[in-house]
Amino acid sequence: xGDNLDGANLNSDGFETQEFILNLGPxxxxxxxxxxxxxxxxxxxxxxxxxxxxxxxxxxEKMAEGLTFSQFTPYTSRFDYCAGALQPWAYVIALEKLGGxxxxxxxxxxxxxxxELNRISSHLLMVASMVLDFSAITAWTYAFNAREGVxxxxxxxxxxxxxxxxxxxxxxxxxxPEGWVPxxxxxxxxxxxxxxxxxxxxxxxxxxxxxxxxIAPINSEEAIEFGLTGANLRASGRGLDLRRxxxxxxxxxxxxxVPVLHNGDCxxxxxxxxxxxxxxxxxxxQALKQLPGGDWRAKVAKVWKPAAGEAYTMIEAARGVQxxxxxxxxxxxxxxxxxxxxxxxxxxxxxxxxxxxTLQDFISFIASLxxxxxxxxx
Amino acid sequence: xxxxxxxxxxxxxxxxxxxxxxxxxxxxxxDIFWAFVYFVGAVILLIINVIMLIWIERRAAGFFQERxxxxxxxxxxxxxxxxxxxxxxxxxxxMPASADRMVFLIAPLLVVxxxxxxxxxxPYGPGITPVTLNVGILFFLAVxxxxxxxxxxxxxxxxxxYSLLGGMRTVAxxxxxxxxxxxxIIGIVMLSGSLDLGEIARSQSHVWYVFIxxxxxxxxxxxxxxELTKSPFDMTEAEQEFVAGYHTEYSGxxxxxxxxxxxxxxxxxAALGVVLFFGGASGPWLPPWMWFIGKTYVFILFLLxxxxxxxxxxxxxxxxxxxxxxxxxxxxxxLVTGVGIKLWQHFVERSI
Lengths: 378, 352
What we know:
The structure holds 2 protein chains of 2 kinds. Chain A has helices at residues 60-65, 69-76, 88-99, 105-132, 137-158, 180-202, 206-212, 220-225, 231-234, 242-245, 266-290, 342-346, 350-353, 359-369, 373-377, and strands at 9-10, 16-17, 20-24, 36-42, 45-52, 167-168, 171-172, 309-317, 320-328, 334-340. By secondary structure, chain A is an alpha+beta fold. Chain A has a 3-stranded antiparallel β-sheet. The longest helix of chain A has 28 residues, at 105-132. The radius of gyration of chain A is 22 Å and the shape is globular. Chain B starts with a helix and ends with a helix. At the A-B interface, α5, α7 and α14 of A face α6, α10 and α13 of B.
């Protein structure tokens, strides 16, 4: 697909037309951050698209080498800042593997609870911002109202609403506050009611279906080929969910479904988030019921030096498979930290699927992929 | 209170009626004097309306969206818009270096000119129609479509890709939706036998046309939303796609003019709907102009309700909906209306 910017084309009516470049972003209302797509447009139709990333690059992997293992933990919340409590999980599991630390059972449950709550808030953010891209401002406030409840719960536990570096090497930073469990159960009922409102207002709306059904369908082969993971993969008909397929923490003790949809279009990618939110609420409810007592943090030395070696861990983060590869050379600082971030892998499919979409459909497409720029650029 | 307002209104009317004679003006000067009076009246009405509408829009949106809305400046936040306007007046005028100067500068003025012209045509009540035209409705539609040119000028003159795409969409949208709108109005014209807005309003003294022409009312409402470029048809300034559409490059007072024009048109379009379907200024107890304004605001709230419920439709679906659904339905409605009128004349009126 070469740029045809100098030569004029003749369209079917014999009218001279010319393709032009549209830089969608880095400052644009619906690129959800400093993502930039260099689009070559023929009128309102995308001829070719190119991902331009790196506007938020902070050199985190290199930074990790200058910090101690536990000092780097807070930084991990800053990659996918929409799921700040869920993000450090893969990293702390890697550390625990390296050091052979046994995490107390209560800590594992608290991790599941905060992690799943964070997944709920992240999915609510995704569906809200997706419908906001279709200018459904009322529906957006409904979803944000539900998300507010989740954030209040998380704030009571972690002390922060966005970058909750709550999971630490060996457990969690603090115990659940007193009286939090019944409050959380009541709040979950409210969140479900709000989610139902949102679902009823948007999901079956004729205009919404028109904007999302059959737009940019990704079949399961393509999804595998482009390394899609998480909800985007499950919307394409492959039910890969690490919580079920290679359970970490205490996920094998909960009863939950892994929803799978088969069309892989924007609507499926949207609706799978709503289905997963319901499943997450189920998991949180079970975890709150089973919550054991005891310690919430294992004893870990202040200056902690794991044995030389390496660990690779994967978790099912809000946007897909989040993996960390941590290499230790026996000192207090990691020799190398490398991460696989789901958003970065998920946007690889954009140039493949964008040609032929109109600008409007392109907006729904990138909204449905649900990427976070902090996660792409690191 | 209402009597007081009526008295004040009559007083102003009286003074204005006497003024030209006392000033001993010659006939052409009389016309100019009256034109000036109407212009000032229309502009004052427009500004009050815009302030109220923006406040209502924001408060109503807050109500729909489980939030408060502006409530700090003045009682119930009524002065918020005044505050915002003053802020916008103080902002810098920015013009892109590569903009087409003349076109860029004239576009916002044209928008407001069109809006003011439409205010002069509306029958606010018996004796308060600034300009009575026997082809009022035709003139109204003609003037309102001039808006398209202003939007296209803004889109083209800005020399910005987003503005241009927004402007192009507007032209396609407004021109297409004028057809079902005109077709829905023709049924009313056939029933009332007049193109004069005041006459149409008066002919509904027995029954409002919304009960005789419900299909036309639905078509009119949909096309009015499209003409006003309000959601679900707000393609022209689709911020998620085009940043702000045709007025992306405008700032300060010029942006304010676009914004004012948009809300002013919302009022005049709703007022047209009231004249066509809800009996214009007729109503018991209250003075007619109050009925007119009240009905118009209820209709505006209805439009806002639609606006805040739906999301933006896809451009191609919008066109398909217009050409393949609305226009055939409007034509069928026209046919049924025509046959109905003939049958009525043949059987009912003859027997009476």
